[in-house]
Specification:
four-stranded mixed β-sheet; alpha/beta; five-stranded parallel β-sheet
């Protein structure tokens, strides 16, 4: 699968090829519900996000390097809150500086929310920083098992997994689109715009 296909999340179809709606049904018949992965893909890209689908760790590492090369970020400082990601992507300590000087923020997320195309994050990923205190460019690693339909499901699972101490700073990333004039879409006013790449690793 080439880079452009992975950049736009294009994969070979695993279904029978049938459309979501039977052409013989009345136009007034409600359309069948999209599978959760298709729902997320549609809404995430509509929000302006870019993602690369990765079938395994080798593709993940390749995609990460391609993002850095494509944007000329290889020698730039990054901000990475996660020690495991620092090790996984072999990020040297000298490249990890404070969030103000960094070109890019590299992180995971809690869940991917299909019905809004948003990413749910908490203090586990961003500490106590506000989104506007983080770099404009984001690279987020997530897995297909993190896909959920609604934010309510995500909040419930966070509470279940963290009964002793629920993480703070729970928020969503969902504004990845800047208008041609350089201004953010007024419909997302109040939600900081980020140039976001999602590395989506298959784990199901």
């Amino acid at each position: 699968m080439n880079f452009l296909k992975r950049l736009f999340g294009i994969t070979e179809s695993k279904d029978t090829g049938k459309p979501n709606k039977d052409p013989d049904l009345s136009k007034f018949t409600p359309e069948q519900k999209l599978p959760i992965d298709e729902m997320f893909t549609k809404n995430f890209t509509k929000n302006g996000g870019k993602f690369l689908y990765c079938e395994d760790e080798n593709e993940l590492q390749q995609s990460y390097q391609e993002i850095l090369k494509e944007n000329d970020w290889i020698e730039d400082e990054v901000y990475c809150y996660s020690k495991s990601l620092q090790k996984r992507f072999k990020i040297a300590d000298s490249m990890i500086e404070n969030s103000k000087n960094a070109t890019c923020f590299i992180s995971t997320c809690e869940y991917l929310i299909a019905n809004t195309g948003a990413l749910l994050v908490t203090s586990n990923q961003i500490g106590e920083k506000k989104l506007n205190e983080l770099p404009y460019n984001f690279i987020i690693l997530a897995t297909t098992s993190q896909l959920l339909e609604t934010i309510g499901e995500g909040l419930q699972l966070i509470k279940q997994k963290n009964k002793k101490r629920i993480p703070s700073n729970i928020t969503t990333l969902k504004n990845f689109k800047v208008e041609k004039n350089g201004q953010e879409d007024f419909m997302t006013y109040g939600s900081p715009c980020k140039n976001l790449y999602l590395l989506l690793l298959e784990d199901l």
